[in-house]
Amino acid sequence: MNITIITVGKLKEKYLKQGIDEYLKRLSAYAKMDIIELPDEKAPENLSDLDMKIVKDKEGERILGKISDDTHVIALAIEGKMKSSEQLASDLDRLATYGKSKVAFVIGGSLGLSDGVMKRANDTLSFSKMTFPHQLMRLILVEQVYRAFRIVRGEPYHK
């Protein structure tokens, strides 16, 4: 399985990079995983609704440019579906079983994802009703994907 994380914004924090690198190393036994970082749009703190839409649309165009037609897209969004680790594992296993070998998880910038990206998504996923920094979300996602592969293979992993 080829899994890509498409994310807006650059990861600067060393401790997050170290955590992500550790899980990517562990994941290499199960799947090929790539992370594509796209630049975020510079935006002042106080934006009008129209300005927010413009920023999200520009970031969305960059995201959509990295997704091929045969990719199953899972958008991370607060309003997405909440799933247990076991449900995510089952979903990834089902995708692999039915020949969907390309999966992309999409993490938007600080304003979220554009309507275009949400329409392209085959599924949505929410880890919580809380808002997390998108840099931290990347680490949480990589850990959960690793956990999913361990669950599918019946391998032990702490609960």
Task: Describe what you observe in this structure.
Specifically methylates the pseudouridine at position 1915 (m3Psi1915) in 23S rRNA. Its main location: cytoplasm. S-adenosyl-L-methionine binds at residues 76, 108, 127-132. The protein is built from 5 helices and 5 strands. The protein is α/β, with parallel strands linked by helices and 159 residues long. The chain has a single domain (2-152), classed as Alpha/beta knot (3-Layer(aba) Sandwich), CATH 3.40.1280. Strands 2-1-4-3-5 form a 5-stranded parallel β-sheet. Strand 1 (2-8), helix 1 and strand 2 form a beta-alpha-beta unit. The radius of gyration is 15 Å and the shape is globular. The mean pLDDT is 93.
